[in-house]
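Possible race condition, two jobs.
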Amino acid sequence: MRERIVFLFNNEILSDVSFIVGRGAQKQRIPAHKLVLSSGSAVFDAMFNGTLATASSEIEVPDVEPAAFLAVLLFLYTDEIQIDPETVMTTLYTAKKYAVSALEKHCVDYLKNNLTSDNAFLLLTQARLFDEPQLAAVCLDTIDRFTTKALNADGFTDIDIDTLKIVLERDTLRVTEAKIFQAVLRYMNMYIIICLIHIYAYLFTTLK
């Protein structure tokens, strides 16, 4: 039975629904089978069988990348996990969107296992964005233990201001106040540069 379902993955045979996934040139049409999707996802079940079920055989999904959508479908059809550093965040987003909790857990575990001082700030930002408190706690613990390395990482200046505030309010950081001050100055300098770029881009498009 499993081999038969694997055969149906991304296959037009007996397909009764198609998803138009992505935007622009990356847009991709992906065939699927309502029975398989509904059996593994409460969101898909409501989409196809609920009181407000869609009657359309073609569904637009512009906010998801095709590779991530295929990763979620692959898991629903085969239980196979296909994630890597480039796709794990988009796959986590898609797994949460369609309430595929088992795959969501695999994504979070993957991020935890690949957490380092170099990416702790970026993963903390993503953990907050996707409401993953356990991942956020592990990121904060890593930042506490390797504060200097985390502050010196390239990704530090890419975090949002709210994440920065959360970290600065902690009294468990293993670094001097002088180094924190230097890191914040570096962050603010980059923040100002980004703001200026946006202002120039806006002026260029509106005044030309």
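Job #2 (started ~2 s after job #1):
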Amino acid sequence: MSGAPTFRPPPAVGWMVAAAPEPAMSGPDGDLGGPAEAGAEGGNGGFGEAGQSGAPEECHTDPTWEERHPIMCFALGLPYVPHQEHSPAGFRLWADIQSGASFLGPEVMALGLLWVGLVLLGALQTQAQDSTPNLIPAPPLLRVPLQPDFQDELFQGKWYVVGLAGNAFNKEKDSQFKMYATTYELNEDNSYNVTSTLLRNQLCDHWIRTFLPSFQPGQFNLGNIERYPGIQSYTVRVVATDYNQVATVFFKKVYKNREFFKITLYGRTKELTQELKENFITFAKSLGLTDDHIIFPIPIDQCIDE
């Protein structure tokens, strides 16, 4: 095809305390819990961000987590009680209070209750700060354009992630997001093996998944979705592409009943014209996003050019 495509805008408290932040499509390309955010597709974009561990069951199953957060586990009403040699004095005090130790006076008991209450309040405040804010609603797929007469053979190959936009991205927090590359390899059944390569902790990381063709050419679903706990649906839709220079791809994921969406601006090279970037911004805003939800990853050479 000749010429770059033009994008036109289409017409119980306890359990919550230790909950980890929602994944932000942060594994590459929408984030399935893959590499978090040193730069995979979805950096913080609701498609898989790494965050502070905090699932309540960890109080039962992870001794190191229990030792680091004994008061938190106890405040959740979970049965774990750490060994005394690892327990802060305050925790031993509260354990004694719960067991009804008679040698403690009412003043001490009241102090213990107050102390644990303050810990619980602090945990709730932390959760409120860390959790994903109210998300801009994901658009219905019918509002998202689809590349006419999609050519799967021409689309395969290596793409650089030049731009990202999504309802879980934050321009300020993700300002140092590094560019990464995604390669689409076409299979005989018209599915793609999709590999994202990124620099993470000074090492090259590779994240692989499968996109299965849907009922419409250019639309795909995540393969082996049962391997990704919490993900209920995951749709990929090629919005527009000229195959040899630029592509815009839409991702939508339902994770634990919350809808995340992301738009990726791909380039066959690391640099695209300002006009193409402006078209990308216009399209992202047509789906309800703002400038604060749009980022352009920093170009790098490590890993993605190998």
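The radius of gyration is 23 Å.
Logs attached separately.
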